[in-house]
Sequence to fold (682 residues):
Amino acid sequence: MKINFFSKMALSNLCKNQRLYIPHILTGAGLTAVFYILITLSMDRMIHEMRGGSYIEICMQFGVFVMGMLSVILILYTNSFLMKQRKQELGLYNILGMEKRHVGRVLFFETFYSSILTIVLGLVTGVLLYKICTLFICYLLKVESVWGFYHITPTTLVPTALFFAGLYLITYLFNRIRITVMKPVELLQSAHVGEREPKVKWLFLLVGLLTLGGGYYIAVTTKNPLSAVSLFLAAVLLVIIGTYCLFVTGSIAFLKILKKNERYYYQKRHMIAVSGMLYRMKQNAVGLASITILASAVLVMASTTVSLYVGIQDAVHNACPHHIQVTSSYRDSDGEKQSIPMEELKEIAEEIAKQNGLEIAYMDKQHMIDIVYLYENGEFMINDLYLSQVQVPENIVQCFYLTEEEYNSHAKEPIALEKNQVAYYGNPDRTLELDHQFTLADQQFEAAIELDEFPVSVASVITNTYGIVVKDGEVLQKIYQDQIQKKSAFASEIEEYFYIDFADVDDILQTDGIRLGDEVQAAMREYVIQLTDGKGEMGMVFDSVWEEESYFLGMYGSLFFLGLILTIVFLFATALIIYYKQISEGYEDRKRFQIMQKVGMSAGEVKSAIRSQILMVFFLPIIVAAIHIAFAFPILSRLLHILFFSGNLLFLGCMVGSLLLFCLIYIVIYRVTAGVYYKIVH
Fold:
């Protein structure tokens, strides 16, 4: 047989099976386009060099890895479905005289044509959509748009094409091997394989319950954000294993319980739905579990990234409550630590404000120190061992100290303390409470006053953070010396913080705000250089609300964009799996329902039975996914705390909103795919 014959036959097969191949080609093209966009963003220097763009590179590299893994899974899945639907056709070729090597050539040309079309369509789509994506990123980061089609280069086009070409080559080799090892009779009878009532595998059921329970337990009981980082992946893996085990075995057990319930089972639509699902649950269960995992991933990504981006201003305020915050100390030519006089700082700030047409609304200087402890049995202990532990202790505490005098200079209501008393403000997310009597720096103190607010930000990756007010500088020095003696390698310094708030800056542009901060910073450095004849050393830590906003826009904006892209891809993957599942079951159920109509069931009764089966299969994954994210909420909120996000109510609202929106989209997918199923069955 000539090559031209196999080529024409492959084209004819693609056209005849377009209901199967069009979704397969569109899936591959979509995955190719998204992969190209992500890999190009990870290498686009113009995007990386814009303000906040450094986070794009990191996030997109992770996105490329996720998309690569997802592409492998989806393309292998769609290929497996196609081969399953065409086994009888391929077996018939053998019966009619074609050798397996001839069938292999047909498969080669089918794969070649479909892969070329897929890759070209995907790259063209990716190139066109890339510019829209970059403009959207610039909008998210609030920077000037990047124009031009400079991104169309072999550096990103070739790796994308080679990656997907390699994937399609693997699918061809996989199909070729399966055709070689299977007998024609097995191919013809493949549609009837596995249609026996499955048994409940109690060991699998037990494994599923234990792993799912373990994942839930980790998610609910993990309180420390730093511990949550290492435990979250373990919890995810346990939940995935548990989901698959319970769907494979638990669903069978559940259906058998329904079958034993005579009042429920012995109804026309229920009997048909339950018996049909029970006999095919082996293949159904894996698909349902996959839909559940994808739905859970969509809900987690959407709720976390949206809440982060929406809560940017709260994160900025937590990290930098004043327009400008500076540590104002320096070391002179002799190495001695000195302070910039308040008068000089004020003069510098007022001069810069005047040059920019602004006025100083607030200005002050504070002495503060923050120290990390282990808190146990009413005692603050300094112990370096926690730094070397893989899992961070739950009782780790960070304290920010101010004196009574400096607190009262900012507080609406001044306080009065005794030598052995403190006033304290605790992070709302804390999991530890201070004892009324506690030991600090080998001295007994009384937690006399609980404060509603603290003039200094206590934002930290540590959950248990406290702002503590002590009587005076003498007590503060004692606490400082104590940590010097017990923790010399990691001792904190008493720092001087200089705060500035400008009037009428609500409408100032971010670029102008950053320039304003840079001018203040440069003027302070110039003052130290002049004061020390260039021999001094200024260890300045400078923060401005505009720099922090830029930082959070870059980080949260990058995560939001990646989350949006992956959410769309995961939604598409969910719809694809459901679509193929409906087609597969439609062909399998068509003969069965035709027989039922011939023996007396009306068309309405058949349709009712179909609807009952589809609803039972369709909405189980969304229910389980909702349970998953409900248990995931505690550990996710801890993880978000590391990113300076503390709006748990906002996160809860985003999670509920994401669930409702997903349910709406899910219903649309249901109506579309159910229509395909009805057409096939009828």
